[in-house]
Amino acid sequence: MTSPVVTVPDRSATAPAGASRTAPRLRGPRRRHTPGRPRRSVLLTVLTGLVLLYSLVPLAWLVISATKSQEGLARSFGLWFDGDFALWDNIAETFTYDDGVFTRWLLNTLLYVVVGAGGATFLAVLGGYALAKFDFPGRRAVFAVVIGAVAVPGTALAVPTFLMFSNMGLTNTPWAVIIPSLISPFGLYLMWVFASEAIPAELMEAARIDGAGEARTFFQVALPLLAPGIVTVLLFTMVATWNNYFLPLIMIKDPDWYPLTLGLNSWNAQAQTAGGEPVFHLVVTGSLITILPLIAAFLLLQKYWQSGLAAGSVKE
Amino acid sequence: MPKHSRRLLRGTVLICALALGATACGGSDDGGSSGKAVSEADVQAALKKGGTITVWAWEPTLKQVAADFEKEYPGVEVDLVNAGTNEKQYTALQNAISAKKGVPDVAQVEYYAMGQFALTEQLTDLKGFGAEKLSAQYSPGPWNGVKAGGDGVYGLPMDSGPMALFYNKKVFDKYKIEVPTTWDEYVDAARALHKADPKAYITNDTGDAGFTTSMLWQAGSRPYKVDGTKVSIDFSDQGAKTYTDTWQKLLDEKLLAPVTSWSDEWYKGLGDGSIATLATGAWMPANLASGVKEAAGDWRVAPLPQWTAGGKAGAENGGSALTLPELGGNKELAYAFVEYANAGKGVQTRVEGGAFPATTAQLTSQEFQDTKFPYFGGQQANKIFAESAANVADDWSYLPYQVYANSIFNDTVGKAYVSGTGLADGLKAWQDASVTYGSEQGFTVEK
């Protein structure tokens, strides 16, 4: 933070190609630090390395452990392979164990993510756009409520939500997970900020003058400009819904409607049940399969995600 | 994350327990069907008519029982739901009861938790169905469990956990250690084993309320006395002293593996010989056979060590019953299922599936006693379990809020496992905390 050189990666990309390469040579052997070539800090490198290890070691453990059988897990060192390679058997067993209930959980999670996170993103985009681009009475009040809502953790609301849903007879149905997931105050806030930066008022005015209706202005002019923001919010809500544990835990009792998180937990709990069958190898393999779609989503949407985060950070 | 959510869960249990106390004091009892007589003919008529019942249970062998039941009574559908194991299911049940929606028709409840639900009349008294006539069918411990210290019969015993000593014979043979028959010998064996192999421990214990109360039970301590809403808690009797004196030695000399039961590390320890014995309920063989395959043939079963040489005291560890929540529906059908599963044909099915029964007919049958366990090298382990079941003193009772009390065990007694606090002091702290909580809940608590 106290580094004298402020690095802005974007600017280096726009600098003349030759400049950064020739400049150091002209000024003698001592290296100068330009924005394109920030000074290396040993401390920072070490710290980043530690963080990298911290985040990769559990992942490595998961991948390695998924190749072990139940007995292999007990007899071998956690961060190295066991003699027999059981990954394919484990994957096959994960999908067939208990009449293939894992597939059902996977589909449930997909349903919750597509409808819940997709719906949450859609609502956040609509709301954020409206709040950013239209002036109407009560806007400040809405702002206060949204900011307040960001501060309340979802888990604190879980029990009241349960009682409410229970009175409506919605517990133990997919709706009990989907409806609360539709609300994403943080997503709304993000879309609001993003929309006010990304859509020039002049552009909207031009669209209106050309005779476009409000719907058309939104879908054909605003929406493409909002794409990076939408992807960011989508990723946020997707991760939140995919990993959602506490809400389904109290809402859903029927294993047929479990998402993966609850399902894996119930497999894990078998080891703690008198008469139950411990299936640690399936829990581990199932967890690995569970995180793969999220990793894929991040890699595929990375481009949008980054440009979304940087939006508004540089004044043009 | 799991740890965090567990804490959250515990918080919810607390809130719900508080809510439960409040409604109990508020007198929410709206009559219900408790005590109403239901004849055998009514039950048969309900079976003929058919319908659906929802059963909340985590006991794995019930799956087969439910399938058989549906086959026998084609009009009936059993919706078997695993709503979580032990406390998790109680939280869910308590939530459903306070919401008055989604309460299952049948719920599995362990004996230690029975009082919590029974006292507040959240469970149907099955005397109305003539269940008290079945008392002779069950061994004393479990039957005492479903009565929950009162006059009612709040469930039919499903399984039981008469205690025995499971030991790794390979380890004992290797270091030429005798299998202990008293707890004093057990301490000696612990010392000898740990000296021979510093990585090996006689057993694991990081503080487990269920285990400690079972040990007190066997030692003759009766810390809890319950008479309606009058409760007394006292961990200072001779039995408790006998237990703490002995167990303190194991703690002081660090002879207990610092491994929590049911963790993956625990399964590992049971497999590689670093946890050499387990004093636990007779339901354990199924878990050993499926979870510790690598040690098949190494383990054997011996009678539970005694507090006095030549004694025959037993105790129960774990075990559960099927109950009918008051707010559940379809009572006749629900009772028919419970009777089928726990007193009728279902019992044999469950025994074949690896469950340990609570019925004396099964426990004393030749076939049951002669069963050879390949896992225990062909040993007829049921003989030991059955004898243990018969020797359980039936005057033990749990608190009417034992689920809560057990949840604070680690905050109080748990200290004896991690710091210099004595076990007896830990129990005293547990007693005080339990007394305070009970008084807050409107119980008349004496120390």
Automatic annotation (TrEMBL), chain A:
Similarity section: Belongs to the binding-protein-dependent transport system permease family.
Keywords: Cell membrane, Membrane, Transmembrane, Transmembrane helix, Transport
GO aspect biological process, one term: transmembrane transport
Protein name: Carbohydrate ABC transporter permease
Mode of membrane association: Multi-pass membrane protein
Residue segments, region Disordered: 1-37
Protein localization: Cell membrane
The keyword Cell cycle is annotated on this UniProt entry: no
Domain of life per record: Bacteria
InterPro entries, per database record: MetI-like (IPR000515), MetI-like_sf (IPR035906)
CDD domains: TM_PBP2
Keyword Transmembrane: yes
Organism: Streptomyces griseicoloratus
Transmembrane segments: 41-64, 110-132, 141-163, 175-196, 217-242, 279-301
Stretch forming the signal peptide: none
Gene Ontology CC, one term: plasma membrane
TrEMBL record, chain B:
Signal peptide: 1-24
Matching SUPFAM superfamilies: Periplasmic binding protein-like II
PROSITE patterns hit by this protein: PROKAR_LIPOPROTEIN, SBP_BACTERIAL_1
GO BP term, pick one: transmembrane transport
One Pfam family of this chain: SBP_bac_1
UniProt KW keywords: Signal, Transport
Family matches, as CDD domains: PBP2_TMBP_like
Keyword Signal: yes
PANTHER family named in the record: ARABINOSE-BINDING PROTEIN-RELATED (PTHR43649), BLR3389 PROTEIN (PTHR43649:SF14)
Annotated family: Belongs to the bacterial solute-binding protein 1 family.
The protein's name in its UniProt record: Sugar ABC transporter substrate-binding protein
Naturally occurring in which organism (per UniProt): Streptomyces griseicoloratus
Organism ancestry: Bacteria, Bacillati, Actinomycetota, Actinomycetes, Kitasatosporales
